[in-house]
């Protein structure tokens, strides 16, 4: 399935330096803002599709989620084209995510994976930050209907935004791996 055309990509911008981040849930844009365009995101290996999440209903939590339950034909197509064989659905919200505060902090620690990271936003919103080739943080604002993939080995981090909640599907090729490699100390953990 074709990715979204460049002029329909998600909003992205360069972030203030890490030392200036007081609130991880804030946009943390530079002043004046420096937008980052689709071309640049494609260059670092990001893929982006826009689906209609509001037309279908999904459970708040399903670990795993049976991908044969997919009725959205676009999601089915992507699923088959890309070989996504496992999915789960989580809702990051104090009522639905055990150890919410710890998890929200952990998602925001920069890390890489030895697999692609594939996330489909079903509701709510958040920020995926990715490292560009100048080692600067680019913040991507993800919202309902956004299906984003980050390539293996790309430094990134995630946070919910000031809306305080996101409902998201996590897709995997093969068995899910949540192994993270952090920049500072190489530690492994499971979410
Ligand atoms: C991750 O790997 O950082 C996450 O899965 C974040 C939550 S999904 C929007
Ligand atoms: Ni990750």
Write a brief caption for the model.
The chain is mainly beta.
List its traits.
single chain, 191 residues, two-stranded antiparallel ribbon, 3 helices, 13% helix, globular, binds 4-(methylsulfanyl)-2-oxobutanoic acid, binds nickel (II) ion, acireductone dioxygenase (Ni2+-requiring) activity, methionine biosynthesis, oxidoreductase
Describe the structure.
With 191 residues, the protein is mainly β. It is 13% helix and 32% strand. It has helices at residues 38-43, 73-82, 100-107, and strands spanning 12-14, 47-50, 62-65, 86-92, 111-112, 117-131, 137-143, 146-150, 156-160, 166-172, 181-182. The strands form two sheets. Strands 1, 2, 3, 4, 6, 7, 8, 9 and 10 form a nine-stranded antiparallel β-sheet that branches. The longest helix has 10 residues, at 73-82. The radius of gyration is 16 Å and the shape is globular. The chain binds 4-(methylsulfanyl)-2-oxobutanoic acid and nickel (II) ion (NI). The site of 4-(methylsulfanyl)-2-oxobutanoic acid has 8 residues, from strand 6 and strand 10. 4-(methylsulfanyl)-2-oxobutanoic acid binds at residues 107, 117, 119, 126, 158, 166, 168, 170.
């Amino acid at each position: 399935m074709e990715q979204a055309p460049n002029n329909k990509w998600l909003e992205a911008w360069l972030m203030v330096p890490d030392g200036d981040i007081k609130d991880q849930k804030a946009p943390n844009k530079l002043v004046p803002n420096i937008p980052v365009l689709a071309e640049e995101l494609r260059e670092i290996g990001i893929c982006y599709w826009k689906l209609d999440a509001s037309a279908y209903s999904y459970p708040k939590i399903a670990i795993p989620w049976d991908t044969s339950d997919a009725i959205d034909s676009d999601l089915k197509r992507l699923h088959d084209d890309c070989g996504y064989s496992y999915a789960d659905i989580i809702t990051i919200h104090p009522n639905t995510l055990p150890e919410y505060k710890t998890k929200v902090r952990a998602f925001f620690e920069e890390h890489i994976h030895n697999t692609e990271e594939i996330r489909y936003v079903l509701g709510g919103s958040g920020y995926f930050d990715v490292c560009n080739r100048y080692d600067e943080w680019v913040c991507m604002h993800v919202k309902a209907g956004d299906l984003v993939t980050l390539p293996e080995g790309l430094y990134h981090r995630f946070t919910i935004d000031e809306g305080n909640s996101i409902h998201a599907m996590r897709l995997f090729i093969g068995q899910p791996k949540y192994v993270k490699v952090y920049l500072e100390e190489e530690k492994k953990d499971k979410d």
